[in-house]
Model the fold of this input.
Amino acid sequence: MQILANPNFDFLGKRRLFIGLSVLMALAGMVSLILKGGPRYGIDFRGGTVVQVKFQQSPNLDKIRNALQQKGLGGSTLQPYDRPELNQVLIGLELAEESSLDRGRIAIVEALREALGGEANKLDFNNASVAALADRLRDSPQVGRSALTSAQVDQLARTLLEFRNSPPRSGLIKNYQDLASLPGVNPDIISALKNETYLGAFTIREVALVGPRVGKELRQKAILATLYALAGMLIYIAFRFEWVYGVAAVAAVFHDVLITVGFFSLLNKEISLTVIAALLTLVGYSMNDTIVIFDRIRENLKLSRRTELEPLINASINQTLSRTILTSGLTFLTVLSLFLFGGEVLNGFSFALVVGIIIGTYSTMFIASPILIWWKGMAEKRTRARGPVLVEKPANRRKVAGR
Amino acid sequence: MSRALLYKSIFILLAVLGCLYGIIEAPRSKSELYANVQKRIRLGLDLKGGSHLVLQVQVQDAIRANAATAVEKLRADLNRLGIQYQSVDHNTPQKLEEADSIQIDVKGLPSGRSSDFKGLLDDRFPEWNYVPVDSTSWRLNMKPAMLVQVKRDTVTQSIQTITQRVDGLGLTEPSIQQYGSAEADFKIQVQLPGVDDPARVKEIMQTTALLEVKEVKAGPYGSVDAALAAHGGVLPENSEVQKQIERGDSSQAPEERWYILTRSPIITGRDLRNAREGRDNQSGRWETGFSLSREAGQRFARHTEGNIGKNLAIVLDRRIRSVAVIESRIEDQGQITNLRSQQEASDLALVLRAGSLPASILVLEERTVGPSLGADSIRHGVISGLAGLAAVVLFMLVYYKFSGVNAVVALLFNVIILMAALGYFQATLTLPGIAGVILTIGMAVDSNVLIFERIREELRTGKTVVAAVDAGFNKAFLTIIDTHVTTVVSAAFLFIFGTSPVRGFAVTLVIGLLANVFTAVFVSRVMFDYVLSRKQQVVELSI
Done:
């Protein structure tokens, strides 16, 4: 099976068009970034509090907003999260002070509890810990009738909560009868649970508190690490090939990151720590792609020293084209499955890769290679200005391509 | 089969077995297999659920306390030597950045006694530098070496105390360690996998748990002002005013009670031998009982014997928890009563046993992933990972036919090596780590595609199968090395300069790439050679 038999496209002929397109995309992203005052950083880099809450029923955002306002948390943001039928909301708070980080989270939980009601003197089953549930059960007369040892009660509490936490319940039990089929649960236990606990209307799924100073530090470290990594690659490629190859490859990768970050800004998506991981993946991927083609160019140059660069590079891109399509296509498949089935947590991450792989493949052919030609052209002009012509036209182009 | 090929095959077989053992060990049943995998492949907090905290030790607290002790000692020494003074006080830096600005001001010292004063400082306060402000005032600054030492000791002691407290909770594999620079950051990183009540653990870690038993001089009063007014506006020598916290279940607003206590405690948390939760026989309320060490018990017995009828206050974290009349000689027992729940009683017992913290603790960062979210993330990760892998495998088989089998085997082996290495190195698999695995799989596929496309090219030029395979591997080898080394170089930089999530990415990536050079170049080649060696004359290759 063969995707392309003997491809022979003129990739470099239209390089002005593609460079124009890249500049346009990069500009669009830049304009968006400037208008919005920089990237939209996630909690990791901005600092603040985010609490992810899952509700029993479709949450009434106005009611929650009112409750938060009464707690003095008027500045908090409410944002539905993931698919609507999951009833999930992200509650965010911007905070300036490290010392008030924890208070914000406590106030959010209190506001929710007041707005949605709880039962005094009973334990909220949907937010209980194993230890707290076990303590309650031990005190219950119904459990006493079952004559369980202390360790058995602990085990029972663990079983109940593991069931509560596993999908599709995902932390919320709607009806005590759902628990009836679990090992060790009998009608006595169910009635004990009903006496000692209530089924709260929400559960806290995730809490992230990041002090603003830590956020700034994380941001700086992530940027620095990426720059050092790029510098490291540049030096290695310069060592293995030539300086200009390294510069071209790094420029192409930089182009990819810039455009992907621009896309994030245009679509108003958050840059979080996992998105940074995705950008790093993209850097590695795009670099890999570029080196494969550069390798071919180097090999072809060795086979035939006296040739014009443009047709040689064109031939190299064509020779590796089926590999490029296959690899990009297959990697794209994996990333796409991550985007489709990976859930909301991986959404930003996989989105960055879906965009990045397309851009990364494109940049190798249309950005990195033209930079090589442009640079060599400049060098050639300089030599020409100084002395006699060194470059001769090849007698037979087909021979160069090795066919 | 040639001898070399045989050796290579045996080597690969052993490697596969070693890696499989690294992931699943030697399970005897299906449940044991799951348990072993869970034990070997440690999942990060973002996948498993749990809390990641970065705490900062407020070392200025310890430095302040150090200055307070020095002030007391200096006052006593001045009195002893008969040197008059107007005041000896220290400033109170509140922020961490201000810690180094600690100073003690001595005012109204007779200028004639300057040399005696200097002699006293040189003798008894070697950790302080001093400068004259004017003829009767002096300023003391803590020596830089001392500052560094106090800070370092404070952090070390805080880590020890927190570790002891967390260990008492019986969590699985908690990790508490110094984070960042010891001299400048004063940070502690706490990882609590699988914790389901992070708020409680945080409280246990942050409670100072400074227990003191003090003598009550007078009280109660309705307010601080009332307490002062009763003594003509000035506190008696060596005493302080403290508030009692009211914890009844009465519905009316609790009335404030203030007491005047002696400044120096009779008993402190350091004198405890043990602490345990218990229940009051009459009221059924929870309480925490503590017992004293032998030496402290004797001291306490002497004191109570001589002060029958007077009041004692139990003070926790500078708040009076209870005040009681000494009815008889008390040897070595005490209780903190009126606690809300069994959990509060046992938590208090735990922190008392572990001892008090030398400074307060600030939470700089917290990431808590609830267990239900972790379970969802794993499920999503596994489903999408398998879907992606299946698509790749299917495509390789269709596109490269028999050679595709070769690529798929190499790919799976790569993933196995990666997982085994994670197990052997005790590394944790996090969400960014999974990103590294994806990039690895991408590059592993790429290596195979590079080689196969190269072999096809060589076949098209009319080479024999054996020659084409040979040339394909040789020519693709350089490219593979270049792409891999470049990525490893960048991953190394990410590991050195990155924060922990970025590091997780770098670790899986480096392991995966090393494994890939082995599987794509070596293992895949051996498989080709094996297939080719079994036929007398190879005219066709399924690729």
